[in-house]
Design goal:
mainly alpha, extended
Length: about 90
């Protein structure tokens, strides 16, 4: 993460689906991931109700699930590093 930034990169996923803008989208995606480490995808085409349900489940996980349940999926030197981390 070498570059400084003052805003989260926002990339419209719709550009990845259009052959005319796909190359520029991929350049922006690469830059965001290499220089910032994360980004926000807009124009995903996902149903807003689905997005809200996923966000609600995420909040429920972090706010309501007991710690011992979270620790069952804790990242412990796993190759994939997928799971909960304290």
């Amino acid at each position: 993460m070498a570059a400084n930034f003052n805003a989260i990169p926002t990339l419209p996923l719709a550009q990845a689906r259009d052959p005319k803008t796909k190359s520029a989208f991929l350049d922006d995606l690469r830059s965001a991931l290499l220089n910032v480490g994360f980004l926000y995808l807009s124009e995903t085409g996902l149903d807003e109700e689905l997005v809200e349900r996923v966000c609600a489940e995420t909040r429920r996980f972090f706010e309501e699930l007991p710690e011992d349940e979270k620790l069952k999926i804790e990242m412990k030197n796993e190759k994939s590093f997928l799971g909960y981390s304290r």
